């Protein structure tokens, strides 16, 4: 997600993440907090912006390795297929990019020298991902004390899942929609791919903190709920993300 301005120089920016995790009954958390699984998919987080998972599809086993650039929402995916000797062979390379001008997600899959392109309309993304970098070069001149969290709005929207989407592609599309970062929603991406869901529904609420006596952004809190449909019956994931300027306490 877009980072807010730090109190110290830019290289010291930090991202503080807290979360609560809710998944459908078919997905259960393992003893390793970085791993979730169901009958078809096992997800392993290698970093907050990279992960890999195995998937059983039509009797074949695949391993998908993904890395995301959180600022641009670009996802690089490599899809490996397990052969009869038990070795994983690279079968597909996939790239997912966001065209922010047109608000579209463009997925390119390369297999056997051929390229397949799919485009998904993402609608109107969140307006609450304001970046304090655009307002001030340094907020250290402002008060150390912050205001309480101020509610700034609740938004909602649908996400049409691409036909050949990986979990990372789905997480990236949802993250762009809510103004979050893709790793935040990889659990929802995995659940959506595992259940072959063709449309997801997102609802998110945003709060801001400011140095007392100013309107300068020092913290953004975003709570997102991802459902299978707009009927909001099946909750796929619920997470809260806090982005706080370095040197401030946003708790």
Question: What topology emerges from the helices and strands here?
Answer:
Layout: E1 16-17, E2 28-29, E3 35-37, E4 41-47, E5 50-57, E6 60-69, E7 74-82, E8 88-99, E9 104-111, E10 114-121, E11 150-160, H1 167-178, H2 186-194, E12 199-209, E13 219-227, E14 235-244
Antiparallel strand pairs: 1-14, 2-3, 3-4, 4-5, 5-6, 6-7, 7-8, 8-9, 9-10, 11-12, 12-13, 13-14
Helix pairs in contact: 1-2
Describe the model.
By secondary structure, the protein is mainly beta. It has one domain. It is 8% helix and 44% strand. The protein has helices at 167-178, 186-194; strands at residues 16-17, 28-29, 35-37, 41-47, 50-57, 60-69, 74-82, 88-99, 104-111, 114-121, 150-160, 199-209, 219-227, 235-244. The strands form two sheets. Strands 2-3-4-5-6-7-8-9-10 form a nine-stranded antiparallel β-sheet, covered by helices on one side. A hairpin with a 7-residue loop joins strand 13 and strand 14 (235-244). The longest helix is centred in the C-terminal third of the chain and has 12 residues, at 167-178. The chain is elongated, with a radius of gyration of 19 Å. Mean pLDDT is 80; it is low at 1-33 and 128-137.
């Amino acid at each position: 997600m877009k980072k807010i301005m730090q109190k110290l120089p830019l290289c010291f920016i930090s991202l503080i993440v807290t979360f609560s995790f809710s998944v459908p009954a078919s997905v259960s958390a393992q003893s390793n907090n970085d791993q979730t699984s169901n009958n078809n998919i096992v997800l392993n987080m290698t970093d907050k912006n990279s992960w890999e998972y195995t998937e059983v599809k039509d009797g074949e086993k695949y391993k998908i390795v993904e890395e995301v650039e959180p600022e641009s929402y670009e996802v690089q995916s490599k899809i490996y297929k397990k052969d009869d000797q038990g070795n994983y062979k690279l079968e597909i390379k996939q790239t997912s990019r966001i065209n922010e001008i047109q608000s579209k997600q463009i997925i390119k899959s390369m297999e056997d020298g051929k390229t397949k392109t799919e485009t998904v309309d993402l609608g109107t993304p969140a307006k609450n991902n304001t970046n304090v970098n655009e307002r001030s070069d340094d907020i250290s001149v402002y008060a150390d004390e912050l205001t309480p969290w101020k509610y700034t709005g609740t938004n909602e929207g649908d996400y049409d899942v691409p036909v050949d989407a990986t979990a990372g592609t789905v997480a990236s599309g949802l993250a762009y929609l809510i103004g979050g970062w893709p790793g935040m929603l990889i659990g929802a991406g995995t659940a959506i791919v595992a259940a072959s869901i063709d449309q997801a529904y997102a609802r998110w609420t945003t709060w801001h903190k400011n140095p007392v006596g100013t309107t300068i952004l020092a913290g953004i809190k975003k709570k997102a709920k991802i459902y299978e449909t707009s009927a909001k019956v099946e909750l796929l994931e619920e997470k809260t993300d806090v982005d706080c300027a370095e040197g401030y306490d946003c708790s």
